[in-house]
Amino acid sequence: MNESRRSSRRRSPSIRSDETIDYKNISLLRRFVSEQGKILSRRMNRLTSKQQRLVATTAVKRARILVLLPFSNNEI
């Protein structure tokens, strides 16, 4: 089989239907932030564009301002 072809297997969504995107849900938000503290892209997160906007613009930024998430990870 050709290795360069995309896999036909469907990926499962990264957010279950019972999970809500909220700045207080830190365990969920940590999945969308890299080790350096950067917000991961929509393609890496496997989110819809609406979900990505909720994660990036509201939830992660609010959690950072309230010091629930760090702005950057400087523990090297």
UniProtKB/TrEMBL annotation:
GO terms for biological process: translation. The keyword Transcription does not apply. InterPro entries: Ribosomal_bS18, Ribosomal_bS18_CS, Ribosomal_bS18_sf. GO terms for molecular function: small ribosomal subunit rRNA binding; structural constituent of ribosome. The keyword Calcium does not apply. Belongs to the bacterial ribosomal protein bS18 family. It comes from the Eukaryota. It holds the Pfam family Ribosomal_S18. PANTHER family: 30S RIBOSOMAL PROTEIN S18, SMALL RIBOSOMAL SUBUNIT PROTEIN BS18M. This is Small ribosomal subunit protein bS18c. It comes from Ceratopteris richardii. One of its GO terms (cellular component) is mitochondrial small ribosomal subunit. Keywords: Ribonucleoprotein, Ribosomal protein, RNA-binding, rRNA-binding.
